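>> received
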Amino acid sequence: MSSLLVVAQLPPPVHGSNVMAERFLAALEQAGHRAELVEKSFSRSMTEVGRASLRKALMVPALCRRLELAVDRVRPDCCVFFISVGITSLLVDCLLLSLLRRKKIPYVLYFHGKGYPVYESPRYLPVRGIVRRAFSGALGGLVLGEGLKKDVNHLIPDERLFVLPNGIPALDQGQRAVPRPRRQEASVVFLSNLIPAKGPMRFLEMARLVREKEPAVRFILAGRHASTRYLEKLRGFVADSGLSGCVTIPGAVYGEAKDALLGAADVLVFPTSFGKETFGVVNLEAMQWGVPVVSSPVGAIPEVVRDGVNGFIVEPDDIPLLAERVLGLVRDPALRRRMGEAGRELFHRHYSLEAYRYNVGRAISFFLAQDELRVAAKGGADGR
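>> returned
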């Protein structure tokens, strides 16, 4: 049984990396590893995420001290470090990683964001060496999909990367037993934060084209808005396009409300172009309900939504093709059922919590073996 240190932030605030940190710790425990958390908690709400502040800066020395004490107390076989992508947070991470190197603790970087090649550009020349040392000093990295390896390949080669897809809890027996509603109108859903890059306006532009050819469709644009001005822009488009009778904007939906929304959906559309998009957990949430997905070739999404199998992949700005794919699903219930069942099967095989826990165990074994090989190689070199 190995002893591990995990450096990560737990909720709150609630976002993908924080939630997966909780699940990762639970998976380690289930696999029989001793794991201790050093929490790097800087943001108390989503509005603080990615923003530098004096309060955060003053927290750094204490965090370094907590990490040092944890290393001395646990003497871990390995540290799994949830690495940031924004420059300010990344530099703090590099400082913490330098402490691990000084203490000779092998570490693995867990990547939940993307965009690291930018730090090779001339703009970041003053910090490029710092980032390079942090990455090249790692045993390797955990990435969410094969397509995300290229984001870190400039510093970590494929043979030191392990693909660990996200996993989410499966529906319980009672939820799975709820029959899908039968309606004359098909229900097409968007579910994400209402920010431009996630694609809510593209969703509405698609809705306008679909309604021109198929009136028996209703559209639900669900999600938390970050800007009242942008929300009003979306509402204005709905009114100006004559969509008021078929488009609903309910705001953020969580828990049972989210289950009810996806349980009644016929198609999920997620036309994201978000630069930091890596996985698209909402697609998994739809898949476990047996809902086909139309989404974008961004991050690991094409590995989750397999084009022509459990949905379609469309370039986010290709609104005519987006509308064509949605129309095809709306008009063909048999195709929806077939793709929905394929998505549910893929979910249970690859993206359930059970699959995630199994893959975590494989990942830790992979990196501990890497460390043994590295130690053996170093010993052989020293012997010469």
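>> DSSP finds 13 helices and twelve strands in the chain.
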